[in-house]
Amino acid sequence: MNISPKVPIPTLERLATYLRYLIDLEASSIDTISSTEVEKQTGINAAQFRKDLSYFGEFGKPGVGYNVVELQSRIARILQIDRDQSVIVLGAGNLGSALVGYPGLGEQHFNIVGVFDQSPKKIGQKIFHIEISDIARLKEINASLQARIAIIAVPAHAAQSVAESAADAGVRALLNFAPIILKVAEGVVVRNVSFLQELAVMSYQLALDIRR
Amino acid sequence: MNISPKVPIPTLERLATYLRYLIDLEASSIDTISSTEVEKQTGINAAQFRKDLSYFGEFGKPGVGYNVVELQSRIARILQIDRDQSVIVLGAGNLGSALVGYPGLGEQHFNIVGVFDQSPKKIGQKIFHIEISDIARLKEINASLQARIAIIAVPAHAAQSVAESAADAGVRALLNFAPIILKVAEGVVVRNVSFLQELAVMSYQLALDIRR
C-alpha cells in the first residue's frame, strides 16, 4: 500500500464519503459504478473523485468503471479501517453512552474497549457490556488497553484536562465532541465533531432563504 | 445586519469557531483580544479572521483589538443564534436521547420542541420533559410545532425516508447524524455530522505517524 504524507485531508474526508456510498451500493447489490454515477450520488465531481483515488494507484477500468467491492476494500485498507482498532470513550454521560451503543463504530472496526468517567455514581456501572472506569486511573488502565484513539464526550469545561490525561496515557488521536478548541501536544491529532457549528451554519442558510 | 448570499460556507464555519472561542474568553473574564491572539488560540490565521469578519462590516479598533462581548453578540446575530429556533429530533434512540439532553443546544437557542420515533414501545414515553411522538404523525404535529430544523438520529437504513417526511412536514434544514448521503429537494439544506468519517481520517493520520 502506498501511504504518502502528501495526501490532503479533504481527500481523506472524501474517501470516507466514497466508502459510505460504496457500502450502500453493495447493500443494493450493485457491482460496478462510473465516476459520473459517483458524482450524481455524492455531489463530489467525477474529476475530483478520480484525482482523489490517483493518490493511491490505479483504480477502475476505462469503459467499465469501478468494481464496488474492490474499491470499497481498497479504500478501507487505505484508511486503515479494515483492521481492529481499540478506542476508549471519555465521559459516560448521555453522549458517551450513545457512542458505546452505536453500531456504526464496530462496522468500521473501531472497538470500544473502555469507558471512563469521574463520577463515583457511574464508576463500576456498565454501559452495554463495558464497565465504566475511574478516569483518574486512565493512564494505568490504558497501559494494558493500549488504545491510541479516544473519543472525548465530557462537558466543555472538563475537555481540556481530559485531553491532556489522554495524551499522557498514550492516546494519539482525539475525536472531540466538546464545543471547545483543544490544545494538544505535537504528535497528537484532534478532529472535532462540531454539530453546534453545523447547526449555526444551517441557521444562517435558513435566514438567507427567508430573505430571498 | 448585512446578510449576503456570497459569504462562503467555510467562513460561516469559522465564525462558529470564533464564537465558541469568544464564549470561552468571556467565561475567563477577558475583555479584549487581538487577531494574533485568535490565531494562536484557534489555529485560524489572523488575516483569515479579519477577512471573515469583513463580510459583515466593521469590527474591532486598530491598536486596541476586538471587544469580546461585542464580537460575540455580533457573530451570534449574524448566525441567527441570538434568537430562539425550534428544532425537532427524529429518532429517539441513544443518540436522539443524548441530543435532547445536550445543554449546548439550548445555550445557542436551539430549542428542542419535539422528538419522534416509529417504535410503539417509545411513543408516549418521555425523554427529559419531551414526550416522544409517532413519526407517522410528523406532518400533522409539525404543522403546530412549526420547526424548520430537524436533527436526524435514526439508523442509516431509515434516514432517507425520514428526511423526506421531514421535508414534507415543512422542515428546511436537516442535521444528519446517519452515515448516509441524503438526497433532498431543492430548498432543503443538509449538513452531515460524520464522526465515522472523522475517525477514518484520524485512523489514516495515525498510521502515517507510525511509519514516519
Supply the key terms.
homodimer, 212 residues, alpha/beta, Arc Repressor Mutant, subunit A, Rossmann fold, seven-stranded mixed beta sheet, two-stranded antiparallel sheet, 9 helices, 9 strands, globular
Characterize the structure shown.
The structure is a homodimer of 212-residue chains. Chain A is an alpha/beta fold and 212 residues long. Chain A has 2 domains: 9-78, Orthogonal Bundle (Arc Repressor Mutant, subunit A), CATH 1.10.10; 85-196, Rossmann fold (3-Layer(aba) Sandwich), CATH 3.40.50. The first copy, chain A, contains 9 helices and 9 strands. Chain A has helices at residues 9-27, 35-42, 46-54, 68-78, 94-100, 103-107, 138-145, 156-168, 195-211, and strands at residues 32-33, 66-67, 85-90, 110-117, 126-127, 130-134, 149-152, 173-176, 189-192. In chain A, the strands form 2 sheets. Chain A has a 7-stranded mixed sheet, with helices on both faces. Chain A has a two-stranded antiparallel sheet with strand order 1-2. In chain A, helix 1 (9-27) runs antiparallel to helix 4 (68-78) and helix 2 packs across helix 3 (46-54). Chain A is globular and about 60 Å long. The model of chain A has no long low-confidence stretch (mean pLDDT 91). At the A-B interface, helix 1, helix 5, helix 6, strand 9 and helix 9 of A face helix 1, helix 5, helix 6, strand 9 and helix 9 of B.
